[in-house]
Design goal:
The protein is an alpha/beta fold and 181 residues long. The protein is built from 4 helices and 7 strands; from the N terminus they run αβαββββααββ. It holds the Pfam family DENN.
Length: 181
């Protein structure tokens, strides 16, 4: 999920494959939801019809879901990250370089996600674990996952104002992003 999240943030082409249309829709929508508060502004098609498979050759980034019976048509795509939802694999081609999160944030996010998804890991190494570990309900787990990614964005974007440059030579001040800082 973190590979797909980073691929979407860095504007790569992402293709979901599954034999279930519901799973395709859910996976595409979940990836967009994880990007909140950012909005994905490129091509987004949760279920691509067979007649439009040539769209996969477009040079622009996309998030597209395709039924797995068309998997043979996706084999020649060299610059597309393919997530097989039925097999549980993510295939990143050699020519595609996905920039992952900076190291302290990546490890913290992995740990936070594993604690939300598998809370038993937190007490697995204790000599005397507590007698009961309550798993969160699905609704609460959804909120916890959203909180992990919202915290990640807050950590990534903290201090952004330091990079803003105000130009006051115009009648009204103009704010520019100073890339060097």
């Amino acid at each position: 999920v973190l590979y797909l999240f980073c691929a979407a943030l860095t504007e790569h082409k992402i293709l979901f494959l599954s034999s279930s249309y519901q799973r395709l829709t859910d996976a595409c929508r979940a990836l967009l939801a994880l990007m909140f508060p950012l909005k994905y502004s490129f091509t987004y098609v949760p279920i691509l019809p067979a007649q439009l498979l040539e769209v996969l050759s477009t040079p622009t980034p996309f998030i597209i879901g395709v039924h797995s019976i068309f998997q043979s048509e996706t084999q020649e795509l060299l610059d597309v990250v393919i997530a097989d939802l039925d097999g549980g694999t993510v295939n990143v081609p050699e020519c595609v370089h996905i920039s992952l999160l900076p190291e302290p944030l990546l490890q913290q996010t992995r740990e936070a996600l594993s604690m939300v998804l598998d809370p038993e890991l937190e007490v697995a190494d204790l000599a005397f674990p507590p007698s009961t570990i309550s798993a969160s309900s699905l609704k609460m787990q959804d909120k916890e996952i959203r909180a992990v990614f919202l915290r990640l964005f807050a950590q990534l974007l903290q201090g952004y104002r330091w990079c803003l440059h105000i130009i006051r030579i115009h009648p009204e001040p103009v704010i520019r992003f100073h890339k060097v800082r």
